């Protein structure tokens, strides 16, 4: 018939529709093509307890943890297991936890970004991405006790989980200047001993008796200990 339109529906017409098992809300829904940009889904990596090692990032009870120590145990009777000591990235708490050998463990999706600490604005610490010049502001809660080693111009590594900063890694060695300390005395080098010194970041460390105001020293940020004069 003139002017009529014949429409043939074929199963192949729906080839652009796919079933998705990655949707966190309802894995049974059809996934339709979109023209807008959506937020990428979280990546989940499967591990077993046999893969655990020092420095592993795992997710337990919905929180990210870093493995500090581990020990594989094979008792004479019973199943083998892995004993671990872990630190919670969010709370800072350290606990001991045991996993059955071969049991499945989720790896925490933690990624790193290098930022430069530029300045402090009130109670906020401002970090800049040197490639995009975008700023990120963190409070004392996010930076923790590492604030006492931060110095303007210092490159730091920010660890992120679920889009949130959970830790800030500083250089192992930093050079800081002494702004207040009791004056040294003759013979101090031979006699040894230490005294407290205040640094330009506000941190207080024990230094040898011969160190004076104005001296620059190297400090280990992991232990907070004096290493040497710079």
UniProtKB/TrEMBL annotation:
<dbReference type="InterPro" id="IPR008991">
    <property type="entry name" value="Translation_prot_SH3-like_sf"/>
</dbReference>
<dbReference type="Pfam" id="PF01132">
    <property type="entry name" value="EFP"/>
</dbReference>
<dbReference type="Pfam" id="PF09285">
    <property type="entry name" value="Elong-fact-P_C"/>
</dbReference>
<protein>
    <recommendedName>
        <fullName>Elongation factor P</fullName>
    </recommendedName>
</protein>
<dbReference type="InterPro" id="IPR015365">
    <property type="entry name" value="Elong-fact-P_C"/>
</dbReference>
<keyword id="KW-0251">Elongation factor</keyword>
<dbReference type="GO" id="GO:0005829">
    <property type="term" value="C:cytosol"/>
</dbReference>
<dbReference type="GO" id="GO:0043043">
    <property type="term" value="P:peptide biosynthetic process"/>
</dbReference>
<dbReference type="Pfam" id="PF08207">
    <property type="entry name" value="EFP_N"/>
</dbReference>
<comment type="pathway">
    <text>Protein biosynthesis; polypeptide chain elongation.</text>
</comment>
<dbReference type="GO" id="GO:0003746">
    <property type="term" value="F:translation elongation factor activity"/>
</dbReference>
<dbReference type="InterPro" id="IPR012340">
    <property type="entry name" value="NA-bd_OB-fold"/>
</dbReference>
<dbReference type="InterPro" id="IPR011768">
    <property type="entry name" value="Transl_elongation_fac_P"/>
</dbReference>
<feature type="domain" description="Elongation factor P C-terminal">
    <location>
        <begin position="174"/>
        <end position="229"/>
    </location>
</feature>
<dbReference type="InterPro" id="IPR020599">
    <property type="entry name" value="Transl_elong_fac_P/YeiP"/>
</dbReference>
<dbReference type="InterPro" id="IPR001059">
    <property type="entry name" value="Transl_elong_P/YeiP_cen"/>
</dbReference>
<keyword id="KW-0648">Protein biosynthesis</keyword>
<feature type="domain" description="Translation elongation factor P/YeiP central">
    <location>
        <begin position="112"/>
        <end position="166"/>
    </location>
</feature>
<dbReference type="InterPro" id="IPR013185">
    <property type="entry name" value="Transl_elong_KOW-like"/>
</dbReference>
<dbReference type="InterPro" id="IPR014722">
    <property type="entry name" value="Rib_uL2_dom2"/>
</dbReference>
<feature type="compositionally biased region" description="Low complexity">
    <location>
        <begin position="16"/>
        <end position="33"/>
    </location>
</feature>
<feature type="region of interest" description="Disordered">
    <location>
        <begin position="16"/>
        <end position="36"/>
    </location>
</feature>
<keyword id="KW-0963">Cytoplasm</keyword>
<dbReference type="InterPro" id="IPR013852">
    <property type="entry name" value="Transl_elong_P/YeiP_CS"/>
</dbReference>
<comment type="similarity">
    <text>Belongs to the elongation factor P family.</text>
</comment>
């Amino acid at each position: 018939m003139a002017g009529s339109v014949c429409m043939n529906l074929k199963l192949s017409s729906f080839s652009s529709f796919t079933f998705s098992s990655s949707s966190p809300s309802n894995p049974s829904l059809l996934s339709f093509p979109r023209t807008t940009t959506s937020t990428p889904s979280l990546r989940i990596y499967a591990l077993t307890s046999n893969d655990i090692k020092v420095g592993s990032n795992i997710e337990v009870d919905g929180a990210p943890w870093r493995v500090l120590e581990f020990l594989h145990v094979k008792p004479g009777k019973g199943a083998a297991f892995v004993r671990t000591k872990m630190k919670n990235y969010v709370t800072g708490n350290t606990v001991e936890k045991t996993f059955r050998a071969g049991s499945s463990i989720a790896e925490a999706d933690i990624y790193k970004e290098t930022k430069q600490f530029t300045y402090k604005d009130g109670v906020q610490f401002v970090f800049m991405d040197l490639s995009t010049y975008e700023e990120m502001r963190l409070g004392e809660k996010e930076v923790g006790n590492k604030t006492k080693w931060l110095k303007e111009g210092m490159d730091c590594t920010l660890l992120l989980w679920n889009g949130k900063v959970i830790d800030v890694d500083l250089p192992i060695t930093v050079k800081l200047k002494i702004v207040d300390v009791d004056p040294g005395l003759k013979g101090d080098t031979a006699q040894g001993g230490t005294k407290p010194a205040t640094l330009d970041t506000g941190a207080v460390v024990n230094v040898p008796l011969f160190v004076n105001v104005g001296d620059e020293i190297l400090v280990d940020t992991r232990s907070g200990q004096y290493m040497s004069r710079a």
